[in-house]
Design goal:
Layout lengths: L1 H10 L5 H7 L1 H38 L8 H75 L5 H190 L3 E6 L16 E3 L6 E6 L2 E6 L2 E3 L5 H14 L5 E8 L5 H5 L8 H15 L4 E13 L2 E4 L8 E2 L2 E2 L7 E2 L5 E4 L2 H14 L2 E2 L7 E2 L2 E12 L4 E11 L6 H4 L4 H24 L11 H5 L1 H4 L4 E8 L6 H15 L10 E3 L12 H4 L4 E2 L12 H18 L1
Parallel strand pairs: 1-5, 1-17, 6-16, 6-17
Antiparallel strand pairs: 2-3, 3-4, 7-8, 7-12, 7-15, 8-9, 10-11, 12-19, 13-14, 15-16, 16-18
Helix pairs in contact: 3-5, 4-5, 6-8, 8-9
Main location: other
Subcellular location: Cell junction, Adherens junction; Cytoplasm, Cytoskeleton, Microtubule organizing center, Centrosome; Cytoplasmic vesicle membrane
Family: Belongs to the TRAFAC class myosin-kinesin ATPase superfamily. Kinesin family.
Length: 729
């Protein structure tokens, strides 16, 4: 490329000789030639260094020194050499860049020369044109001078032409000034190129100094490497000689040791034969060991399996005895409860529902005992609290299983006993579901009446029964009739005027039911009128205490024995915290009345448990209406409903503690409501009209449908029964 530039510059030397003399172009060419020669010399030196390096590598490959301690230093020298080569490559790249810059500057210089040439040609043409015009003007002036009569006109014409000439001259001068400015600019460009060339020369000098330094380093490394190789060669020869002499000494010692070993072998042959015999016997034992081990393991497994089977059979027998004893204990406990008149307490845990939400608050906090169905455990604030009731129903228990446990109480109503079953618990715990259920899966209320009808049909040959149903609710401490024509009418609780001490509600509607269809109609009619609202805790929250009163009147046609049993089925409204339920306005007032009545129920239970002389039954309409069931003349069962969700553990704990307090209350033995009337004749075996009449409703108080028999009638009837039994005997 430099030679090509030289040729181009020589061709244009004649055209821009004046411009080169002004701008100093010859010095730039000299510097460029010097750089090219220096670059060529550096390339030749690099090639010579590479040849020497290849020669050194070839010598090293021909005579390698594997155990040389200076091999690492040799490797370092090679790395330095490779680094020098990389730096030389970088120097070459910089020289190429400098060549490209020189070529670019030469091209720019050629363009400037062409522009200057064009400018000079234009200037020459303009000067030629102006000179021609000047000659024409002079000739015109001379011709005009020869004509004096037109002197005035000619003078004016010359002035005009002189103005034009001056204008042309000014234009030429401005053009000349423009060209001079262009020339000045080109001079400035050439000065910049000279400065760049000088910087390139400085860089080249630095690179040359570095290359000379690298060459000196390379020569010094080469000399050191030759010296080290020579020293290594001498050390190798010396090490070989020392190793040879040491090997001779060791060989002599080995021969001596070998002679001693041969002597020892001759003496060790009998011991070797003994060891061989022992080894063979051990080998046979090892070969037979797996069979012996398998036989031993087989016998051990058989013994262990036999022992495990014996333990299992013993455990099964113990578990059977334990369950039998547990059943016997429950039976004895139930009999003791019956004799003492304790309130029986059943617990039922509802399942987790979608209303409980998700996350840790909806986790199950209630667990059950696998061996005892009367115990449940509650995890409250990280501590497990255990409660023992008479029976605990898990979430998977069905309505049928729950009713099987209470049907014995229901049937005792036919025999003339008063029975009360009430559901207690926080709102949304499932009390209404347990007592009322759904149409497809009814609860205790409907199943109890169905069972009563079934028992009545079974005793129809000897007994006549009449079943009446009443339904009421306590809403905001007001007793209302759910089956009456005016449910908003407030009713009062009064004592029976017959002196029995029992309570009744004047004006409470009673319906005679004779079939399941009648039951469904009564339930549907009463359920429509009951107050339920939606709260944050329950979509269908009961806002009142609902009471279903079932009265069973029985008459034994053969003996004239009359029985009167009453079954109270109570669905209490749920206790709730106002902050959680979000009750406002009328809902808040309802919640306050509900909590007040439940608090009064707790006071009554506390008084009964501590055997106080005064029991505050009249503090609430609820406790006053349940006085017959809680005063010792009734079989009472409380169904406590609890929620297993973690967020309801505080309410669940309170409900279970209240259930334990209720369970410890003793009401005394229960009496049967039965009395003998006069011996009926064949025409008087029909049940009285009041008992079995077809009237749809009656407001008569219980126990007032018939008068109490006189003592004479009782004695005569007893005597006639004894005579009849004696005759038949």
């Amino acid at each position: 490329q430099v030679e090509t530039l030289k040729e181009k510059l020589l061709e244009q030397a004649q055209e821009i000789s004046r411009l080169r003399s002004e701008l100093g172009g010859t010095d730039a060419e000299k510097h460029r030639d010097l750089l090219a020669a220096e670059n060529e010399r550096l390339r030749q030196e690099m090639k010579a260094c590479e040849g020497e390096l290849r020669e050194l590598r070839r010598q090293q490959q021909q005579a390698p020194c594997r155990d040389c301690p200076h091999l690492q230093e040799n490797t370092g020298l090679q790395e330095q050499l490779s680094q020098l080569q990389r730096e030389a490559e970088e120097t070459r790249a910089k020289l190429v860049e400098l060549d490209l810059e020189v070529q670019q500057k030469t091209n720019r210089l050629a363009e400037v020369e062409l522009r200057l040439k064009d400018s000079l040609a234009e200037r020459a043409e303009e000067e030629e044109r102006l000179s021609r015009r000047l000659r024409d003007s002079q000739e015109t002036i001379a011709s005009l001078k020869s004509q004096p009569q037109q002197i005035k006109y000619i003078i004016k014409t010359v002035e005009v032409e002189s103005a034009k000439a001056k204008q042309a001259l000014c234009e030429t001068q401005s053009r000349n000034q423009y060209l001079q400015e262009q020339v000045g600019m080109q001079k400035q460009v050439l000065k910049e190129m000279e400065q760049q060339l000088q910087s390139s020369q400085k860089t080249e000098a630095q690179l040359r100094a570095q290359i000379m330094m690298y060459e000196a380093e390379l020569e010094r490394a080469h000399g050191q490497m030759l010296e080290e190789m020579q020293a290594m060669e001498e050390e190798k020869n010396r090490a070989i000689e020392e190793a040879f002499s040491r090997a001779q000494v060791e060989m002599k010692a080995v021969h001596e040791n070998l002679a001693g070993v041969r002597t020892n072998l001759l003496t060790l042959q009998p011991a070797l034969r003994t060891l061989t015999h022992d080894y063979n016997s051990l080998k046979r034992q090892v070969r037979d060991f797996p069979l012996l081990l398998q036989e031993t393991l087989r016998s051990a497994r058989a013994e262990i399996s036999q022992a495990i089977e014996e333990v299992h059979s013993t455990n099964r027998e113990l578990l059977r005895k334990y369950r039998r004893e547990l059943q016997l204990r429950k039976k004895c406990h139930n009999e003791l409860v019956r004799l003492k008149g304790n309130i029986r307490v059943f617990g039922r845990v509802r399942p987790i529902t979608k209303e409980d939400g998700e996350g840790p608050e909806a986790a199950n906090a209630v667990t059950f005992d696998a061996d005892d169905d009367a115990v449940l455990h509650l995890l409250h604030k990280g501590k497990q609290v255990s409660f023992e009731l008479d029976k605990v129903f898990p979430p998977q228990a069905s309505q049928e299983e729950v009713f099987q446990e209470v049907q014995a109480l229901v049937t005792s109503c036919i025999d003339g006993y008063n029975v009360c079953i009430f559901a207690y618990g926080q709102t949304g715990a499932g009390k209404t579901y347990t007592m009322e259920g759904t149409a497809a899966n009814p609860g205790i209320n409907q199943r109890a009446l169905q069972l009563l009808f079934s028992e009545v049909r079974g005793k129809a040959a000897d007994w006549d029964y009449a079943i009446t149903v009443s339904a009421a609710e306590i809403y905001n401490e007001a007793l209302r009739d759910l089956l009456g024509k005016e449910p908003q009418e407030k009713l009062e609780i009064k004592l029976c005027p017959d002196g029995s001490g029992q309570l009744y509600v004047p004006g409470l509607t009673e319906f005679r039911v004779q079939s399941v269809e009648d039951i469904n109609k009564v339930f549907e009619f009463g359920h429509v009128k009951r107050v339920t609202e939606c709260t944050n805790l329950n979509e269908h929250s009961s806002r009142s205490h609902a009471l279903l009163i079932v009265t069973v009147h029985g008459l034994d046609r053969s003996t004239g024995l009359r029985t009167t049993g009453k079954l109270n089925l109570v669905d209490l409204a749920g206790s709730e915290r106002v902050g959680r339920s979000g009750a406002e306005g009328s809902r808040l007032r309802e919640a306050q009345h509900i909590n007040k009545s439940l608090s009064a129920l707790g006071d009554v239970i506390y008084a009964l448990r501590s055997r106080q002389g005064h029991v505050p039954f009249r503090n609430s309409k609820l406790t006053y209406l349940l006085q017959d069931s809680l005063s010792g003349d009734s079989k009472t069962l409380m169904m406590v409903q609890v929620s297993p969700a973690e967020k309801n553990t505080s309410e669940t704990l309170c409900s279970l503690k209240f259930a334990e307090r209720v369970r410890s209350v003793e009401l005394g033995p229960v009496s049967r409501k039965a009395e003998l009337g006069s011996w009926p004749s064949q025409e008087h075996l029909e049940v009285p009209k009041m008992l079995l009449g077809d009237s749809p409703g009656s407001a008569a108080p219980p126990g007032r449908g018939h008068a109490s028999p006189s003592p004479g009638h009782l004695s005569s009837r007893s005597a006639s029964i004894r005579r009849k039994l004696h005759t038949s005997g």
